[in-house]
Amino acid sequence: MPEATGIRARQRERTRRTLLREGRRLFAEHGYAEVGLNGVVTAAKVTKGALYHHFDGKPDLFRAVLEEVQAEVADEVAGAADAVSAPWERLTAGCRAFLVAATAPDVRRIMLVDGPAVLGWSTWREMDEANSVRHLTEALTDLVAAGVLPPRPVEPVAHLLSGAMNEAALWLAGRTGPDDLDEVWAVLSRMLESLRTDRDRNDDR
């Protein structure tokens, strides 16, 4: 019996992963409003009952997809930050990695366009705070502790930076120029530098 239970659990998890994969693909290609549950279950080759076993409906499936996308972006940001050791370079590397990751077409549409519209601003903002704002707050707190930033409340700064980067990602998503990312990063990096004192700008401790 334990073996049979384990097999069923693995089958359920495979079904859930398939629904997430196909739901993500359809939401990214067509947008939330144009995707129906019939299309999802057909693409996933499962029954509608199987979908309802894992999700309450389309909004619940979309939220799970959004959580997956946000986690992937957070992993990319963390990976870029962890690749360098200086606290200031960790922050800037993570911010640039966010812009690159968030401008991928599927990420942009799911995370920045449909996310707030489908789940509502308050819910989307809570999810954003749990991911990008939290990481920014931690990075800024480390910079204050390291003396790279002057002592100041970091929470409002983290929210302002998160909003600026989300808007920058949305703007970049509609551009096709080869230098657009560098131009946006030049502006954003100057905004980041403005947080530092003149003394700190020459010290990447």
From TrEMBL:
Hydrolase among keywords: no
Domain HTH tetR-type: 13-73
Name of the protein in its database record: TetR/AcrR family transcriptional regulator
Gene3D superfamilies assigned: Tetracycline Repressor, domain 2
DNA-binding region: 36-55
Native source organism of the sequence: Nocardiopsis lambiniae
InterPro entries xref list: Homeodomain-like_sf, HTH-type_TetR-like_transc_reg, HTH_TetR, Rv0078-like_C, Tet_transcr_reg_TetR-rel_C_sf
Keywords carried by this UniProt record: DNA-binding, Transcription, Transcription regulation
